[in-house]
Inverse folding.
């Protein structure tokens, strides 16, 4: 069982508290928690829903957390996930000054340095954002992948941000929540990117040894080394409805194994049926359900 304590060296955590009127109470309190902590920002959208073909109204869709009436969940970026999960005005980002470098001078299919420059112009400097916040009044550490940055791939800096957040969560005895959307390890950083799987897994093991809760939310898509490591190591693994989860694409697996693969074997529902995740949750219920688990671990 955990109970929040002061930060490293006795310093205050600096996490802003949520007012008591916003905190649910009672056994079924999670059902009354708002589905989002604050209004979601704009995201890139097609003109029509790929699930049902209906023309999209941006404002109406944003009010529904970017979930169509047909149930199709549009992928959202890190900024939107932070707005969805964190209580309003409690998010405090950390280590945003850590930025990736082209230390291998990668050139193909285009120079890595150019990729980084283009992302920087869009206001992105890494595939992972880490910080502290409150979720329904509970202080937590939160890590969120952003698929817009090189496909949400795991890199040296992404791994370092994740590990620092997990170490702070362990020292402060606060739950750690991870939201994944990733294509795996970043090829432009070679074996050093692959090493982040082991590095982050050690930090996850340290959380377990310290009895600090670790919650993983797998969103669309979660693939490669991210799915093969930290994403499926949570005390509770929640998959967003409609998420694709796997190591690599079906075509590559079929070519390697020469086997007929089960229908939908990389869907969230298939992962639930085979014990890889603990629940498949629609976006509108993720924050309340997470609050429920936080209350159980308190």
């Amino acid at each position: 069982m955990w109970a929040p304590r002061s930060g490293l060296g006795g310093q205050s955590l600096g996490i802003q508290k949520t007012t008591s009127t916003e905190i649910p109470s009672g056994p079924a309190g999670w059902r009354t928690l708002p589905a989002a902590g604050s209004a979601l920002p704009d995201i890139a959208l097609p003109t029509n829903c790929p699930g049902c073909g209906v023309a999209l109204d941006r404002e109406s869709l944003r009010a529904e957390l970017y979930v169509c009436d047909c149930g199709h969940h549009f992928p959202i970026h890190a900024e939107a996930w932070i707005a969805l999960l964190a209580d309003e005005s409690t998010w405090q980002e950390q280590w945003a000054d850590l930025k990736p470098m082209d230390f291998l001078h990668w050139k193909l299919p285009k120079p890595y340095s150019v990729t980084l420059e283009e992302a920087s112009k869009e206001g992105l400097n890494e595939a992972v954002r880490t910080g502290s916040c409150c979720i329904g009044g509970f202080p937590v550490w939160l890590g969120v992948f952003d698929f817009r940055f090189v496909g949400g791939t795991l890199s040296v800096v992404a791994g370092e941000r994740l590990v620092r957040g997990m170490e702070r969560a362990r020292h402060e005895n606060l739950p750690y929540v991870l939201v994944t959307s990733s294509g795996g390890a970043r090829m432009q950083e070679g074996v050093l990117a692959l090493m982040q799987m082991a590095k982050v897994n050690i930090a996850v093991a340290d959380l377990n040894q310290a009895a600090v809760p670790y919650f993983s939310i797998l969103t669309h898509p979660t693939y490669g080394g991210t799915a093969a490591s930290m994403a499926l190591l949570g005390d509770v693994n929640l998959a967003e409805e409609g998420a694709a989860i796997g190591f690599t694409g079906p075509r590559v697996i079929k070519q390697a194994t020469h086997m007929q693969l089960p229908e939908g074997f990389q869907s969230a529902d298939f992962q639930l049926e085979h014990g890889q995740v603990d629940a498949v949750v629609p976006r509108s219920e993720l924050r309340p359900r997470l609050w429920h688990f936080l209350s159980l671990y308190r």
